[in-house]
C-alpha cells in the first residue's frame, strides 16, 4: 500500500542519541549535517508529550479591547491593501479607513466575547505541547557512522 504525502508515520530506525531538550537534539543533527551525513535518514522524535499552559497575565476589559483592536487592525490592513492592489486608482485613505473599521469591529467582538466568558477565564495564556525527551533516530545501516560523528570520531 503506497503512502501519500499526508500520511503521518512514526519514523523507524536505530537510536543514536537521546536528549532532554529539542535544542540539544537539533545541535546533534546539525553536527551530522556538517559531517556530510545523509540527514534525510535522520529523525528527531519527541517522547512523553505534555500539554503546558503558561499564564501570561490577568485579563481585563482594557486588555481584551486592546487585543481585539490590534487583531482587527491587522485584518483591516490586509483588506485595505487588497483593495489597493485590485483597484490601484483607490487612495491610501481607504487603507486607513479599513484599519480603523477593522480595529473597531475587532474591539467590539472581543469585548462582547470577554463579557460572556468573564467569570470562566480571567487570564491570558499560551498553550504548548512539549516532550520530556528527544531521540535522534537514524536508518540502521548508518547508525554506527552517526554514533562515531556524535561521539567526536570520524564520519567514515
Automatic annotation (TrEMBL):
Name of this protein: General stress protein 17M-like domain-containing protein
Residues annotated as domain General stress protein 17M-like: 15-99
Keywords of this entry: Membrane, Transmembrane, Transmembrane helix
Transmembrane regions listed in the UniProt entry: 64-86, 92-116
InterPro entries xref list: GSP17M-like_dom
Protein origin, superkingdom: Bacteria
